[in-house]
Amino acid sequence: MNNRETIERLRREYPHGATVELLEMNDPYREMPAGLRGVVDLIDDAGDIHVNWQNGSSLAAIPGVDRIRRVRVYPRCGEEYSAVPATSRVGLGEICPACGVREALDAAGLAGLSETILERIGDTCND
Ligand SMILES: [Zn+2]
Question: What kind of fold does domain 4-71 have according to CATH?
Answer without folding.
Answer: SH3 type barrels. (2.30.30)
